[in-house]
Design brief:
Number of helices: 5
Radius of gyration: 29 Å
Mean pLDDT: 94
Largest sheet: 30 strands, antiparallel
Helix content: under 10%
Structural class: mainly beta
Low-confidence stretches: none
Length: about 700
């Protein structure tokens, strides 16, 4: 949770100021820490630290949506999004401990943080039913155009505290801890306001040849373009208001005992202990989708704004002009002042559907023995865990007759349930020291991945808007699944490491995981009662059995034997390759790679550490991987993939004095793009590609 203070009291203050290349936004951060050991023999330890930062990042984003029309894949929507964030973080952490003597210690640790995840998003959306032509071209007759302001105001708070002690009496060592934590997220006034196009009917041409990353749009004439970008042609049609609160608390404790003894003349340790954790989370939703019923709705011209972004997305691809946007604060002020002009079309039942209550209680105990037999260390153990989960939510159903015809209004019903299961987790770990610098490790363990207990509660959560149904990234539509089961794995790991005499390590290993009841996230189209009928969203489900096989290598070295200034050179590099497979759909027998499991990821950093300079220049890479399962086809509606991502970052620190540092840093040097696509790695239908450009920092750290 926090560091433990050592040595004489000392501290530091630090600050950084940054600038983003995209939109010239600024960012800054600062921090401090002070602590050490006080009193007789340094028995009292005290440490206090804190940090604060503000990130005004901008993001340019294009999110097309695809469908299949007359047997041809074609774009049916473009969502052009310009983000302007004002994120703030504050945090404090501290440690207080007292060493009664060499064998007895007491401590208290805690932290608190707050994150204001504020931002405004300006969206220009073009949608319609395409008429495919030849070679990936076509038109969208009578396209609908919408200009949207989105204001987000989530506030996240967290606190945690733990108290405990450690005591040694002869061959016995006892440690114990009690801990408590709480979280709260409140999003009040989260709002989408949609201005709908009402000018002359427009036909939009598009070009999306096979394999394209950027499906292009084109207006048919200069007059059409002028009409599309005339703010007077857009009037306020509706707005979505979402007020949501999530609160949680976690309490627990643990106690462990260790006996140092000899077994057949070999040094051994017997450990046993128990752990208890009780976690509870509540989510409440209050939302509405309000239609403007006024005889004459206001146009964007009534809410003029100085903001414009003529260079929107131009660093990656041209042809996506954002156009005029209304002032978000002025729009919200108008909506609040004219509440009588708007009618809420979402039933009160939708708030109940989106709210849930869940808890998870885990009681665990373990016993473990470690024995050193010459160069071989043997560790065997077993852990038992009893899990009790409860959930409560609501479901909506439509009463029907025997022929399936509705016989009355939708019925809202409360739903609750529990899940109880107990598991054993044995483990065997071997370590063999080939020589003082080289060791080999082998382990066999059993593990568990429990369902997120809020996912067990039946619920439907998300945003409703005029263009949300086919875009789950815009609606955020998710559902719970009371039938989720825990996922289990048998893990087999073999690792070898050699520690270099010239400062460094070379290591490598192979691993294999045999999986059961793998928890998946699957994309689906919901059909049923409630506000999300026809929406595309995501739901957690259990698949079947699966496996993960891979190998990893690491090389860390400082070339201290080189002459002169070259002795500061070094390298930090690692690479992991995996191969995975899981039964995604037991009903059809479909198999695929594991979710969020990149087949290749690597970090390669060139380093320099020689007084007074410390520098890093590195590359981080993640290969293509599946984020959500679709139908597995190479067409729209197939699996959703992360694009591969390779990013360069660099930093340099100059130690002007032993107490003063000057720091410089640049992130995302190569302007790496983040995003998703659907289909397969060979048939890419881009559904999101966003970029940030570079961020530059300059700062200092002063010790005292």
């Amino acid at each position: 949770m926090t560091k433990t203070p050592e040595d004489a009291p000392r501290g530091y203050i630090a600050g950084q100021y940054g600038q983003t290349a995209l939109a010239g936004r600024n960012t800054y951060q600062g921090g401090f820490a002070y602590g050490g050991r006080f009193g007789q023999d340094g028995r009292l330890g005290f440490l206090l630290g804190g940090s604060a930062d503000r990130n005004n990042r901008a993001i340019d984003d294009i999110e097309p949506a695809w469908g299949v029309f007359s047997g041809t894949a074609a774009p049916q929507e473009w969502s052009m999004r310009d983000y302007r964030y004002g994120r703030e973080r504050y945090g404090l952490g501290g440690d207080l401990d007292y060493r009664v003597d060499a064998n007895n210690q007491l401590y208290l640790k805690g932290l608190w943080s707050q994150f204001n995840n504020y931002g405004t998003n300006y969206i220009y959306d073009i949608a319609g039913t395409p008429t495919p032509g030849a070679a990936g071209t076509g038109t969208i007759p009578g396209a609908s155009l919408t200009r949207t302001t989105n204001t987000r105001t989530p506030k996240d708070q967290m606190w945690a505290a733990t108290a405990g002690g450690k005591h040694t009496v002869g061959v016995w060592t006892l440690d114990y801890a009690l801990d408590a934590a709480g979280t709260k997220q409140r999003s009040q006034g989260y709002r989408y306001s949609n201005f709908n196009y009402g000018g002359p009917a427009l036909t939009i041409a598009y070009s999306a040849p096979a394999g394209t990353i950027y499906p292009r749009i084109q207006y048919q004439s200069a007059a059409d373009s002028q009409a599309a970008f005339n703010p007077a042609n857009y009037t306020l049609g509706n707005f979505f208001q979402g007020d949501r609160t999530t609160s949680g608390r976690d309490v627990g404790g643990a106690a462990n005992a260790r006996l140092d003894y000899t077994l057949g003349g070999h040094a051994s340790k017997l450990q046993f202990g128990a752990r208890y954790r009780n976690e509870h989370k509540v989510f409440t939703s209050q939302s509405g989708f309000f239609i403007d019923t006024a005889a004459a709705a206001p146009a964007i011209t009534q809410f003029p704004m100085s903001f414009s972004d003529p260079g929107f997305y131009s660093a990656l691809s041209s042809g996506y002009p954002l156009g005029p946007v209304p002032d978000a604060d002025a729009v919200i002020g108008y909506e609040n002042a004219h509440a009588g002009n708007f009618r809420n079309v979402i039933s009160a039942a939708s708030d109940s559907l989106g709210s849930f209550d869940g808890s998870e209680r885990i009681t665990a105990g373990y016993v473990m023995n470690t024995t050193d037999v010459g160069a071989l260390q043997v560790n065997v153990g077993v852990r038992v865990e009893a899990t009790h989960a409860t959930y409560a939510g609501h479901s909506l159903s439509t009463p029907t007759d025997t022929a399936g015809n509705p016989t009355g209004p939708d019925v809202l019903a409360a739903v609750s349930g529990t899940k109880d299961y107990t598991d054993l987790f044995p483990s065997v770990q071997l370590r063999y020291a080939v020589d003082p610098e080289t060791n080999i490790r082998f382990a066999v363990t059993r593990g568990i991945a429990r369902p997120n207990y809020p996912d067990l509660a039946p619920n439907q959560s998300g945003n409703t808007c005029a263009t949300c149904a086919s875009q789950p990234t815009l609606s955020g539509f998710t559902t719970g699944n009371p039938n989720l089961k825990a996922q289990y794995a048998w893990n087999y790991d073999l690792l070898a490491a050699h520690y270099l005499k010239t400062v460094g390590v070379i290591s490598g290993g192979v691993f294999y995981k045999s999986l059961r009841d793998v928890i998946l996230t699957r994309q689906f189209t919901y059909t049923g009662p409630g506000p999300f009928n026809g929406y595309v969203g995501y739901a957690p489900q259990n698949g079947g059995a699966g496996h993960l096989f891979g190998f990893e290598v690491t090389w860390t070295q400082r070339f201290v034997s080189l002459p002169g200034w070259l002795a500061g050179l070094g390298i930090d590099a690692n690479y992991t390759h995996t191969s995975s497979n899981v039964l995604v759909d037991p009903a059809t027998g479909r198999e695929a790679k594991l979710l969020r499991q990149s087949p290749d990821f690597a970090n390669v950093y060139a380093t320099y550490d020689k007084s007074p300079i410390s520098a890093r220049l590195g590359w981080t890479f993640n290969g293509t991987m599946i984020q959500y399962y679709g139908d597995g086809s190479p067409a729209p509606g197939g699996d959703t993939y992360f694009y591969q991502h390779g990013q360069f970052d660099g930093s340099i620190v100059y130690n002007a004095t032993p107490e003063v540092q000057i720091q410089a840093q640049v992130l995302n040097i190569n302007n790496a793009v983040f995003g998703f696509y659907q289909g397969t790695p060979d048939q890419r239908y881009n559904i999101q590609r966003e970029y940030y450009r570079q961020t530059f920092f300059l700062g200092t750290k002063i010790g005292f």
